[in-house]
């Protein structure tokens, strides 16, 4: 039976242009594209264009989740991208609004308050840890309606109230106040809303000798919000 040949050698010979190894077809010298090992934008390639590498890293991170400029700066620094190249790419990304810390802060506050029940104080701390400027943080947190913040805290108490039934009043109070504290609400607000909820169930916290100063922070019995 004649052997079909291709340029460079017959099919099935390791010396040919193509050969089969099991089910996998190996094509020596196959195309190399940006971002692939050995490609022009490969971060491991010492001769790669630093700005091209920086763009690739930033686009990959932004495709996974929104990021602040500070977070991208940190990522580029860890990958060894020269500062000049990093600043050039980040500047262009900011110009075209691929990076916008003010928009990031507004979306973060909206999502984390309604989705996780976090207070403005907790949200501000999260944004600071992500490198957002103070002015952008203040503007984003100011969008929270104080009445809405109280309503959210009250809903958190109501959601946890049933789980404390059957426990002594001081223990119930500690658990509810601790739950609000972990969301960033002030002790005064946490105590007031807890007292309201428990008094609606007929409990007299004052009669039980429970005072705000007698309610220590409850050790976290669940992961803190991050």
Task: Write up what this structure looks like.
Helix 5 (120-129) packs antiparallel against helix 6 (134-142). The chain has a two-stranded antiparallel ribbon. A two-stranded antiparallel sheet has the order 3-4. Among the domains are: 50-95; 101-142; 146-214. The chain has helices spanning 50-64, 69-78, 83-95, 101-116, 120-129, 134-142, 146-161, 169-182, 187-199, and strands spanning 5-6, 9-10, 19-21, 24-26. The model is unreliable at 5-41 and 216-226 (pLDDT under 50). A hairpin with a 2-residue loop joins strand 1 and strand 2. It is elongated. 51% of the residues lie in helices and 4% in strands. 27% of the residues are buried. With 226 residues, the protein is mostly helical. It is built from 9 helices and 4 strands, in the order ββββααααααααα.
Name the descriptors.
two-stranded antiparallel sheet; 9 helices; single chain; elongated; mainly alpha; two-stranded antiparallel ribbon; 226 residues
The percent range for helix content is 40-55%
Q: What value does the average pLDDT take?
A: 79
Radius of gyration using CA atoms only = 29 Å
Order of helices and strands: EEEEHHHHHHHHH
Please state the oligomeric state of the protein chains shown.
Answer: single chain
Q: Please report the total strand number as a whole number.
A: 4
Residue runs with pLDDT of under 50 for 5 or more positions = 5-41, 216-226
Number of helices: 9
- The N- to C-terminal Cα distance equals 69 Å
Query: How much strand?
Result: under 5%
Q: Which of globular, elongated, flat, extended, rod-shaped describes the shape?
A: elongated
Structural class: mainly alpha
Strand ordering within the main sheet: 1-2
Specify the biggest β-sheet: 2 strands, antiparallel
């Amino acid at each position: 039976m004649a052997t079909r040949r291709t340029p460079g050698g017959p099919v099935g010979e390791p010396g040919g242009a193509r050969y089969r190894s099991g089910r996998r077809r190996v094509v020596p010298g196959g195309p190399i594209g940006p971002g692939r090992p050995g490609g022009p934008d490969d971060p491991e390639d010492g001769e790669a264009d630093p700005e091209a590498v920086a763009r690739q890293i930033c686009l990959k991170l932004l495709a996974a989740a929104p990021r602040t400029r500070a977070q991208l700066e940190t990522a580029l620094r860890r990958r060894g991208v020269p500062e000049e190249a990093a600043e050039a790419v980040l500047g262009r990304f900011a110009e075209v609004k691929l990076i916008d810390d003010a928009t990031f802060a507004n979306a973060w506050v909206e999502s984390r308050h309604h989705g996780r029940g976090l207070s403005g104080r907790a949200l501000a701390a999260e944004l600071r840890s992500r490198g957002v400027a103070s002015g952008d943080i203040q503007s984003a947190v100011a969008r929270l309606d104080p009445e809405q913040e109280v309503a959210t805290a009250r809903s958190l108490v109501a959601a946890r109230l049933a789980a404390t039934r059957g426990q002594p009043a001081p223990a119930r109070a500690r658990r509810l106040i601790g739950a609000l504290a972990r969301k960033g609400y002030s002790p005064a607000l946490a105590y007031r809303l807890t007292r309201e909820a428990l008094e609606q169930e007929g409990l007299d916290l004052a009669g039980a000798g429970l005072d705000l100063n007698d309610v220590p922070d409850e050790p976290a019995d669940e992961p803190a919000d991050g």
